[in-house]
């Protein structure tokens, strides 16, 4: 009787660690190269700065609009703003008036 071990048994034992290693490498590659990976952080930081500038611009515009809305409050209307709006919308002015557009 010969005491040979089958050659296939070590190959079967290597399959599970091999699959695990491939899966681990795939996860590591995705963590490094994926859309939310380490290499994408620089792009995210750059886009964040652009979005912060845009947000500041929009907040300034919103504050200006909020101010105009408050000036048009029916309980306390600003007469200068009402006069400006009426003249602009109805295209009404006295012949001796000079209209200087601010925008």
From TrEMBL:
Lineage, opening ranks: Bacteria, Pseudomonadati, Pseudomonadota, Alphaproteobacteria, Sphingomonadales
Organism (species): Blastomonas natatoria
Identification of the protein by name: Cell division protein FtsB
GO biological process: cell division
Keywords annotated in UniProt: Cell cycle, Cell division
Cell cycle is among the record's keywords: yes
